[in-house]
Fold this sequence. Notes:
Blueprint lengths: L2 H14 L4 H5 L5 H8 L7 H10 L5 H23 L3
Amino acid sequence: MxxxxxxxxxxxxxxxxxxxxxxxxxxxxxxxxLSRIESGKFNSNTxxxxxxxxxxxxxxxxxxxxNNDKDYLVRQEIRDIKSHQF
Length: 86
């Protein structure tokens, strides 16, 4: 999962829970840092991401699992393309 996808996930979850950026990032990072994370313009460290995800009720393993799922889907798509070649 790249930084744009992670940021989008965080923003979507935050908005679904009706949480402001200030509420989510309180004690973790600044609102401007969270804004940059959500827009994919900031390479935050894993500690910040883990704490933001935890506050949203998602485990840090969620990112790892999502990344593995994405990798699996890409591998499956490659296999499908190869099986349809002449």
